[in-house]
Amino acid sequence: ENLQLYQLGLKHELFLEYQRLNDMTYISVVNIALRAEEIDWCQGFIEDYTQYLPTYTRKDARALATALWHYANQQPEKATTLLQDVNFLNVYYQIQARVLLIKIFVEAGRGGNDHTELILTQVDAFERYLRRNDKVGKGQKEALLNFALYIKKIFKLRLEPTFPQLKLALQKEIEQRNTLYNKTWLLHLLE
Questions:
Q1: How far, in Å, are 7, 38, 47 from residue 104 at the CA level?
Q2: Which residues contact 32 (CB under 8 A, 6 or more apart)?
Q3: Lowest-confidence range among 56-65, 82-91, 97-106?
């Protein structure tokens, strides 16, 4: 439904102001399209609308959008390469890039490779970044810090011999947490 509204707005050029598309709108459209599993449409959007971005945000916005697309398209290596080659100046791009890298490392660890130390190091760095940053709103910061907290909890509890029993309590705790970024993805980790 949200994607249809954005598509309608794009069709009628409601988001273009002086032939420019706001970069946050651009990234929002990408995120919404990918959540709706409109992978092909999203790729076309990235190709067609990058040209309308302001030149000072174009490189970073396209890199983030393309990395998100690669991740959704089951190409984590390509997403990681894009994210590591760009110095995101926008704080919200930085947050999305860091969360995406954490998710990629976590999912790689589920494939049999133990990336626990790398994941915990990334999460610690992410927490420090959030705590130092005064540009992130209080509610968003809380949701992101909770995301980091539960990643750490999951990976530390996995080492416990009683993890299967602890998993149910942790699932319930996550479900009841109101301010939590990527709640569904975290719950999926515990399946």
A1: 29, 20, 24
A2: 2, 3, 6
A3: 82-91
